[in-house]
Specification:
By secondary structure, the protein is mainly alpha-helical. Helix content is 51%, strand content 9%.
Length: 203
């Protein structure tokens, strides 16, 4: 009997069209790429459900290896787009502002470190995580979607540093892209993620 798997649905981010610093072409291309991750994640879940459950079977093994890349590609883009469309202003009385100021000796110090990671050569993501076990906030460089994530930590903010996120508008000028990214952040979304992580930790 075939196993039915609930399909993931791509979110509609067309409301971001017209955002300052991001051309319509760049955003539409990025949305198409995101839709591809959703489609491929769903395909792999269906294939895994119908494949022989044998780790020695090359099909089963490859389907499961690939799922982490496609699923994380889908979900990381959702974290990315969900935090965009704002005015970039952070409330200095917010929990996340106070936390980052405390952890890094000032909010601007955190931002400098975060942007500095964005200039690392190669493709990847820059991520801000909260570790509920220690209460710390930490920046991480993530290469491919399915590697380098800190286990047990909660993702607060992610910045796409793959070429498709900036090349069309900024060529190799990553600093200009990051400036546009920060000018469009919804800091209330990031703050809500932080508060949710604290609640999960019971602290």
């Amino acid at each position: 009997m075939a196993v039915r798997v609930s399909a993931y649905q791509a979110k509609d981010y067309t409301g971001l069209i017209g955002m300052d610093g991001f051309s319509d072409d760049l955003l539409n291309n990025h949305f198409t790429l995101y839709q591809g991750y959703v489609t491929n994640a769903n395909k792999l879940l269906e294939l895994i459900a119908g494949a022989p459950k044998d780790g020695k079977d090359p099909r089963f093994a490859e389907f499961n290896r690939r799922l982490g890349f496609e699923w994380n590609g889908m979900r990381l883009h959702e974290y990315y787009f969900d935090a965009l469309g704002g005015n970039g202003r952070v409330d200095e009385t917010s929990e996340i502002y106070r936390k980052l100021s405390e952890e890094f000796g000032g909010f601007e110090n955190w931002m400098e470190a975060f942007k500095g990671m964005g200039t690392i050569r190669g493709i990847g993501w820059v991520a801000l995580y909260h570790d509920p076990n220690t209460g710390r906030c930490m920046n991480f460089w993530i290469g491919e979607h399915h590697v380098s994530h800190p286990s047990g930590a909660h993702l607060l903010l992610i910045m796409d540093m793959w070429e498709h996120a900036f090349m069309l508008d900024y060529a190799l000028n990553k600093n200009k892209y990051m400036e546009a990214f920060f000018l469009n952040l919804k800091w209330n979304v990031i703050n809500d993620r932080f508060k949710a992580s604290i609640r999960c930790a019971g602290k």
